[in-house]
Amino acid sequence: MAAKAQKQKGFALLIDPDKLKTKELNETIERAVWAGVDYFFVGGSLLLNDALEEVVALLKSQTDIPVFLFPGSLRQISHNADALLLLSLISGRNPDLLIGQHVEAAAYLRKSPLEILPTGYMLIDGGKPTSVSYISNTQPIPANKEDIAICTALAGQLLGLKLIYMDAGSGALQPISSQMIEAVSSAIELPLIVGGGIRTAEKVAQNIHAGADLVVVGNALEKAPQLMAEMVAACH
Ligand code: 1GP
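^ thats the input. predicted complex w/ SN-glycerol-1-phosphate below
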């Protein structure tokens, strides 16, 4: 745990290729560089516009900020990104999202130049049904059940996953509580990513203080991009 505490904290800006037009994306990239964003996460539940390749190409051509794919499904892959969060939805009991899609994608991913980051993905109830809980056909972990979250994250660690991502879902009414973050963070040795419904720099700071290693924000910065610099600063 001591080693974990010394690790650098970071901020990831989530980009949903369905939402941003090229002009807005250019402005977002400029702002992200200026603010000192550590990572771009790229992904969405559906990818309606088939814009993933275009978005990744633009990010890679304009910045050195690493681009991590955060795919709604393993059909959402671009080899031009830097890394892939290979998500196993360990809070749910949908075998397709625990192992099924991974089997289908394995031979393809093995040939890919992407760095593969095996990630235990845990949905935590954020106060309203989210796209991801609907599409994944799974129940999130109740927001006040720290014991279930701890055991789920621990199981992910024992299975050899390399990261744990706790997500209240995009646009969640209630972001994950500090109590929940602290409980899980202090029970595992893996880096902990936290996202979903974070709207203020204060909440970013609270998450870091509670033990998150990487904080992810999407929606709030689509609506209020001027908050980006203070949110990033709250991580460092
Ligand atoms: C969702 O954790 C991400 O998967 C980010 O959520 O869009 O609510 O910031 P928001």
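The mean pLDDT is 93.
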